[in-house]
Amino acid sequence: MIFESFVESHSFFLWSTLIISIILGAVVNKTNFCTMGAVSDMVNMSDYGRFRAWLLAIAVATIGVSILEYMGMINATDAFPPYRGTQLIYIENILGGVLFGIGMTFASGCGNKTLIRIGGGNIKSVFVFIIIAIIAFYMTSPFPDSDKTLYSVLFYDWVNPLAVSLDSNQDVGAIISHAIGNEDAVTLRLITGLLVASIMLFYVFKAADFRSSKDNILAGLMIGLVILSAWYISSNIGIIAEDENYSLSDYYAEWDMLAEDDEGKPATGRALNPQSFTFVNPIGQTYGYVKDRFDPTLLTFGLVSVFGVILGSLLWSLISRSFRIEWFADLRDLRNHLLGATLMGFGGVLALGCTIGQGITGMSTLALGSILTFISIIFGSALTMKIQYYKIVYEEEASFGKAFITSLVDMRLLPSSMRKLDAV
Predict the structure, then answer these.
(1) Does residue 424 fall inside a structural domain?
(2) Is residue 310 a part of any domain in this protein?
(3) Hey, which of 11, 244, 258, 312 would disulfide with 22, CB 3.0 to 4.6 Å?
């Protein structure tokens, strides 16, 4: 996919993003794919169907990335965000993941589900969207007339010193390659990717109930392929200039040497790197886009994908006649959603992604940070659900402390002798 000008290549990039985003929005709406729902099904009903669909999406994307990267057709190492960076920000991955997991439970869904619900007519999710957008934007962008961000004020001084600098990229294949002194990291990435994905597929399809669930299988396959298609497109669009081929990001870096003027130049070059879907930071980008009066130089993969997923969900809602206007049930419902949105805004940026961004896109690179975030999101959500359940069942008898400790006992993180409430 080589073009003769940057404007043509960038335009193709954004239009392609819109198309596959619409597909993603429609598929997620149609199949009721929901990562928060997957955790809820596991915790409350011991139903692992939607969790297996989530793992199937990860496995499909991982197989594709592993094979295409081995063939030189995908560049996941130079991705935006830098999933495989040599600095392991494990505290941010864990803390951000837990906060995001708690937040998506209170807000009835993750960032992607928020977009799906907006497309389906849920007004509650519009409020969630706005809160996430403002927090995510100011986590990475300075306050007006300041050089401070929410991240620099609240987190940088104590989390940054805890980051670990590795001698290799942080994906499993690269770490193994470095540990055994083998310089062929590409081959080891292929082997580890196929091995991990095979284990996931075995677990997913060994369940007869899952094999008979057309929607769960469709969701896993299609979402995994959509994630992979974004990786492929963003890694292979380029420009021919001065008899050489340039990627979008390389051309941007050499803009002054290659371009005659600044026409069509994006506001930033980072968002031109290879990438796939993630939603918290892009939701934050929408705030900047509106604030700057829809400046076209701010259009990125992430920003277009937000609009595309909403549009895809809306189209399916209209086709299936499932479009419904929904509002808050009461003041408590409003508070829960706003609290959840706040936690997702902070957590999603801290962890470098959400249940899609780290939970599928990042996982497809087998980066340690993505694995930590994935586990932390599930833990934060599951723990919150258990605490809520005990509070409902025992009402005034169950203080937060008792419900919290009992939930940790249920999750086998504390000995059973510490149980404060009878199991339910």
Answers:
(1) no
(2) yes
(3) 312
How many domains, in total, are found in the chain? 1
Domain limits at 241? 2-418
The rounded distance, in Å, linking the Cα atoms of 372 and 92 is 10
The answer to whether residues 394 and 201 touch, using CB atoms and an 8 Å cutoff, is no
Say which residue, 371 or 258, is predicted with more confidence.
Answer: 371
The Cα 73–Cα 222 span in angstroms is 20
CA distance 120 to 131: 19
What is the Cα–Cα distance from 20 to 376, expressed in whole angstroms? 28
On whether residue 17 sits in a domain, the answer given is: yes
Contact by Cβ (8 Å): 301, 17: yes
- Angle among Cα 221, 308, 350 to the nearest 5 degrees reads 80
pLDDT at residue number 242: 81
CA distance 288 to 291: 5
Q: Which residues pair with 245 in a beta bridge?
A: 240
Q: What is the pLDDT of residues 109-118, one digit of tens each?
A: 999 999 999 9
Place of tokens 């284990």: 199
423 inside domain: no
> For 384-394, how does the pLDDT look when each residue is reduced to its tens digit (9 = 90+)?
999 999 988 88
- How far is Cα 145 from Cα 147, in angstroms, rounded to an integer? 7
DSSP 3-state assignment of 198?
helix
How many residues comprise the chain?
Answer: 424
Question: For residue 214, what are the contacts with CB-CB under 8 A and spacing of at least 6?
Answer: none
Of 210, 309, 231, nearest in space to 71 by CA: 231
E strands, 177-277, in order = 238-241, 244-247
Question: Which of 364, 245, 272, 260 is CA-nearest to residue 78?
Answer: 272
Dihedral class, residue 261 (left if φ above 0, else alpha if ψ from -120 to 50, else beta): beta
Q: DSSP 3-state assignment of 265?
A: coil
Q: How far, in Å, CA of 244 to CA of 392, rounded?
A: 65
